[in-house]
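Fold this sequence, please.
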Amino acid sequence: MHMPIKQIWVDADACPKVIKEILYRAAERVKIPLILVANQPLQVPGSRYIRSMQVAQGFDVADNHIVEQINAGDLVITADIPLAAEVIDRGGKALNPRGELYTQDNIRQRLSMRDFMETLRGSGIDTGGPAALSHADRQAFANQLDRLLVKQAGG
């Protein structure tokens, strides 16, 4: 059973600009609400489908707001694995900016790996940060987003 996506939420503080631009075009195309949640004011295109929401500064404030607001079937764009896990637990879908769809099957493994890497960093081992977002990553994101939204437009 496929539940249509009713809204798209973006963990916008860390979301790359190019990914936001793909989302703006998608929201207009399939006429779906897109809500960007961030700790600072955001400039978003004037559209009846796109809005931004500024939350207070603070650790996980934007994440917590998204979790409180989402409904089953909503899509959340985030690279934050704990947030993705909470979204999935609430019946939502979570997609990272590199086009990886988090699922019940892979999120526990991602959480374990994240915790492992945090433990390494905590012990002074340099694990490096994520690689820069490549053209292939942007393409993977756009393709995965299209697959998730294609049923919206009756496609």
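The helical segments are 17-30, 61-69, 81-89, 104-122, 135-149. The CA atoms of residues 36 and 124 lie 34 Å apart.
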